[in-house]
C-alpha cells in the first residue's frame, strides 16, 4: 500500500474530463441517485433502475467502485450476498449531482427545441432551400 506522501499518477491529467467521463456516462448518475436512498443488493438495484442490463449495471458499479463513489460489501453464504452503498465521496457528490439533474429538468425542453431547430436548418441548407444568414455564411462565402 502506498504511503500517504507517495506520488500517484493520474489516469488523465485533466480532472474535469476525468471526472465527467465517469459521471457523464449513460448510467452512473442514475445508479448514484438510486443508491442515495439506501444500500441495495445487486438484483434489488437492477429492479429499481429497471431498464439497465445486468451486464451494464455490473460494469457501471465496478467503475463507480474503482473511482471511490460506491462501496461493495460481500457477505459469504450460499448464495453470497453483495451489497452496494455510497461512500463518503459518493455522498459528497449528491449535492452537485442534484443541482445538475435539476438544471437538466428545467432546461430540457429548451435544449430539445434548439436541437430540433438546428436539424431543420441543416436539412434546409442541405436541400439548398435556405437564404443566407449568419449560420450559412462563412468568411464571405455561402457555406
Description:
The chain is of the alpha+beta class and 143 residues long. It folds into two domains: 8-89, Orthogonal Bundle (Arc Repressor Mutant, subunit A); 93-143. Helix content is 54%, strand content 13%. The protein has helices at residues 15-23, 28-35, 42-49, 54-66, 88-92, 94-127, and strands spanning 40-41, 70-75, 81-86, 137-138, 141-142. The strands form two sheets. It has a three-stranded antiparallel beta sheet. Strands 4-5 form a two-stranded antiparallel ribbon. Strand 2 and strand 3 (81-86) form a beta hairpin. The model has no long low-confidence stretch (mean pLDDT 86).
Give a quick precis of the structure.
This protein is of the alpha+beta class. Helices cover about 55% and strands about 15% of the residues.
- CATH topology title of the largest domain: Arc Repressor Mutant, subunit A
Number of DSSP strands?
5
Low-confidence stretches: none
Write the H/E string, N to C: HHEHHEEHHEE
Query: Radius of gyration in whole Å, from Cα?
Result: 22 Å
- Secondary structural class: alpha+beta
* Known CATH architecture of the largest domain: Orthogonal Bundle
Amino acid at each position: 500500500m502506498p504511503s500517504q506522501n507517495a506520488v500517484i499518477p493520474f489516469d488523465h491529467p485533466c480532472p474535469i474530463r476525468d471526472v465527467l467521463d465517469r459521471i457523464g456516462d449513460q448510467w452512473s448518475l442514475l445508479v448514484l441517485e438510486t443508491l442515495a436512498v439506501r444500500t441495495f443488493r445487486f438484483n434489488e438495484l437492477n429492479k429499481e433502475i429497471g431498464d439497465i442490463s445486468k451486464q451494464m449495471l455490473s460494469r457501471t458499479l465496478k467503475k463507480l467502485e474503482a473511482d471511490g463513489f460506491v462501496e461493495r460489501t460481500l457477505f459469504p453464504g450460499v448464495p453470497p450476498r453483495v451489497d452496494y452503498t455510497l461512500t463518503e465521496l459518493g455522498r459528497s457528490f449528491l449535492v452537485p449531482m442534484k443541482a445538475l439533474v435539476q438544471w437538466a429538468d428545467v432546461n430540457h425542453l429548451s435544449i430539445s427545441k434548439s436541437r430540433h431547430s438546428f436539424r431543420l436548418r441543416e436539412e434546409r441548407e442541405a436541400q439548398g432551400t435556405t437564404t443566407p444568414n449568419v449560420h450559412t455564411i462563412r468568411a464571405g462565402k455561402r457555406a
